[in-house]
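# nightly structure sweep
# worker-07 picked up a monomer target from the shared queue
# config: single-sequence mode, recycle default, output format = structure tokens
# input follows
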Amino acid sequence: MQNLTRWLNRLDRAIAKKEFKFAESFRQILIPGPNQVKTEGLLRIEPASHIYIPGSTYQHLHVMGWLDAGGNSFELPDDIGAALTLVTDRRVEVIPAQPLTMEGEPNRKVFLSMSDLPDRRLMGPLDEGFDLDGEFRDLLGGIRSLDDRKSEVINAAMRLHYGACLLFAADLAAAYTLIVAGIETLAGEFHDFSPSWEVWDQARSWEKFIKAQALSDKQAEALRSKLLEKNAHMRLGERFSEYATRGITDAFFEQELSVWVPDIDWARGSVTGGSWHPGPRIGDVNSNVDELKKALKKSYAARSGFVHSGERAVDSINQAVGAYAGYKASAPVPFAILRSLLRHLILREIDSRCTSRETPPIEDRKAQNVATLLQEAAPFLSNTKKKSR
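# output follows
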């Protein structure tokens, strides 16, 4: 919540100096229930329209605005949503959409979704001619042919991948952690790992200590073993990165991170359609296995920081450009690439271990229903013919 504190401090300083040059930022928010909310103060909230999202409760869409004096408008929305949810004891969702205004019409705003920016391929349309039934059959048939334990692990990794895909627009750090957990789940079952002293990043420092203390070979070995035992997180992080990069081929690095760009209908004030645009290859971001492995260790550290202390080394701002521009090799693997890696590993485990792709022979539901009706009706039709004779 430090962003909120800094925001209040900026307002106090500006008011004290009588610098009333504030900029107002806007976001859409969803408040549950049919009631309209209207408030004016630190936040300006105006009702917009009722909205019903399938599978959710009835909600009311509002537009929220706040004044600031020189801050970054991208830093506050999630923290404001967290604060509103806490004080209202209701789920108040800040929509990840950036308001755009048309030149000459500053009061007319179109809210352009930013939820897909960390993984712009994930929210694009299916390719023309994609054989959905065929691919679905291959996946399920392959999973069914595995033994129960391996099937359970694959399913768990798939559910973690699915959860991340549902969550990434609302809380990217949490979604990122689910992707890391998915790879961890696979590594725990499919990767035999015996960590060595040399792979630990603190080994060199401890070797200097051993030498300075003139420990005997027996004492030094005992200390190394104890340190490895106590630093289980090192083993988990190393296992994670080693499994994720094991057997990775050039084909993975050649994958293109294509970009779906929406079209804006300014006359209607809405987003309509869109088009695919070429993006970078994964190899343009993480150029080889060694570089990917180093970045994966950063990913595991980001996961640990989030789980144990709520640190957000991964957020929507850095990930919005992470896989597409301005990426730093010292940073965690961008969400789009990490998710692609988990998907690749799930499919690889199925492909390498399945013994069959067979599924029930249901080709056309309508045809199947007609055939079933005819079969069930056969005795009655037979009796009718006999009576007519």
